[in-house]
Amino acid sequence: MFSDPIEFKELFLKKLEMMYGKTFPESTSQDQFFTLGHLIREYISMNWIHTNEQYRFNKQKQVYYLSIEFLLGRLLRQNLTNLGIYDIVDKGLQDLGIDLAEMEEVEHDAGLGNGGLGRLAACFLDSLASLNLPGHGYGIRYKHGLFEQKIVNGFQMELPEQWLRHGHVWEVRKSDLTVEVPFWGKVESYTEKDVLRFRHVDAEIVAAVPYDMPVVGFETSTVNTLRLWSAEPAAYKAGKDMMKYKRDTEAITEFLYPDDTHEEGKILRLKQQYFLVSASIRSILDSYLYRNGDLKELHENISIHINDTHPVLAIPELMRVLLDEYSFEWEEAWEITTNTFAYTNHTTLSEALERWPIRIFQPLLPRIHMIVNEINERFCRELWKEYPGEWKRIEDMAIISHDEVKMAHLAIVGSFSVNGVAKIHTEILKQREMNLFYQYYPGKFNSKTNGITHRRWLLNSNPSLSNLITSSIGEEWIKDPSKLVKLKEYHHDTAFLKDLYDVKQGNKQKLAGLIYESNGIIVDPSSIFDIQVKRLHAYKRQLMNVLHILHLYNRCVEDPGFDFHPRTFIFGAKASPGYYYAKKIIKLIHSVADLVNDHPLVKGRIKVVFLENYRVSLAEEIIPAADLSEQISTASKEASGTGNMKFMMNGALTLGTLDGANIEILEQVGRDNIFIFGLTAEEVMKYQHHGGYYAMEYFHYDTRIKKVLNQLIDDTLPDAGDHFETIYDSLLTENDQFFVLRDFDSYVRVHEQAGKAYENKEHWSRMCLQNIANSGYFSSDRTIEQYAKDIWGIAQGSLTK
Question: Is the pTM of the predicted complex or chain greater than 0.90?
Answer without folding.
Answer: yes
